[in-house]
Amino acid sequence: MAFTTGLLIFLVPFIATMASSEPLAAVVKGVNDFTLDFYLTTAEKNGPGKNVLVSPLSAALVTAMVHAGAKGVTANEITKGLRFPEDKATLEDGFRALHGVLANTPNVTLEIANRIYLDKTTKMKPDYTKTVTEVHKSDVESADFMHNHESERQTINNWVLKKTHDKIKDLLSPGMVTPATSMVLVNAVYFFGKWKEPFDREQTYDQDFFVSKSKTVKVPMMHLTKTLRYAEIPQLKAKAVELCYANKDVCLQIILPDAKDGLEKMQKQLREGAFDLSNIEFYPTKVQLSMPKFKLEETINIKDVYQKMGMKAMFQPGDADFSGISEEKLVVSEAIQKTFMDVNEEGTEAAAATACVARRKRCVEEPLEIFVDHPFLFRLVHSNSLIFIGSHFEPTVPSEDCAPVEDDVEEQVDSHLNDNPQSDDDRIHHKRSHCEML
Ligand SMILES: *[C@@H]1O[C@H](CO)[C@@H](O)[C@H](O)[C@H]1NC(C)=O
């Protein structure tokens, strides 16, 4: 059994309790349903026995911005995948309200930021700019991917590093941003909360943790005896306990299968819809809790996960329709998330960042055209030494010989330099008359 946990477990119930308005409730319900699918798909993709830490909220906030400019099948797939309300006004009011709720979370630190880096040459449609700034609280930064894609990638990574209090490094790896990149949509989430009931450091010591039915490893185990909210979930053959932070609406829920190796099976049951985790009925119970301190860090290829979840069109140059963003033909080339979580005696520090990179379609679909149909300069270079330099203003060979001659020239010039300085080859002489030997 892997010790599996997720941001999903703590952000969701907290948002749910705040969902008083109807659009907000619709968006929150959508995010909750998406959360389970996103988590399970990531877990299935990671394979058995692997840790999972995802931030569905961070993914949803970026994807909502991508969705705001999507049309047709591209938009419909995202609506279905993220369980967004179909009605545009409800969706926008819901996200506006969600940002309001998240921005107002006393007694803990919860910082959320959206930003779009936009290439200088890409013109955003005014309606799209209005939606991302007003509904999704994003700012829009100008970037020059065309000429400085590497330094712009570092600029984005530095912004993420700063917004996550140095927890998420190198979100975008080399190659993810190219001169064809048109925009990068980024979200960063940072959370720090102290437990309402902290663990006593003196009560932490090494104990066995079952990594499988029969294999154990020693982990630093924290201990606490208090009245906590507890639940039994017979449908999943599991127990749950809730640890809340200084803000009583923000809690970490631990869902522990009864069987030592029961997590895989529990995930299967959740996939089959055996139980809805938002319906856990907690009640206050005096418990003696032993729980490991842990620190997790993960990188999730959201592009793979989303495609498994049925969101494909946005990544396909032939299908992607982002005509709501710009006149330019765009496709999402990368979608990546990094997460971090540190759970210890005092509380929890967690961070996540998600980026979607959109590029112009034509750069990969069509090779760059170079048509040498007018005068040009040429240089023949051998290991950094210039052997020839010349210019070509007018055709000098009969047209039927053109192609082979061009090939032959370089080869024969080489051999000519090596051992046959006085080559009699007519074609070479012909060319040389326009070259200047250096
Ligand atoms: C924040 O902390 C204060 C002081 O401990 C407490 O009275 C209040 O209920 C807390 N707020 C929330 C939302 O938990």
Automatic annotation (TrEMBL):
One of its GO terms (cellular component) is extracellular space. SUPFAM superfamilies: Serpins (SSF56574). InterPro entries: Serpin_CS (IPR023795), Serpin_dom (IPR023796), Serpin_fam (IPR000215), Serpin_sf (IPR036186), Serpin_sf_1 (IPR042178), Serpin_sf_2 (IPR042185). Keywords: Protease inhibitor, Serine protease inhibitor, Signal. Pfam families: Serpin. Belongs to the serpin family. This is Antichymotrypsin-2-like isoform X3. The gene is LOC117640720.
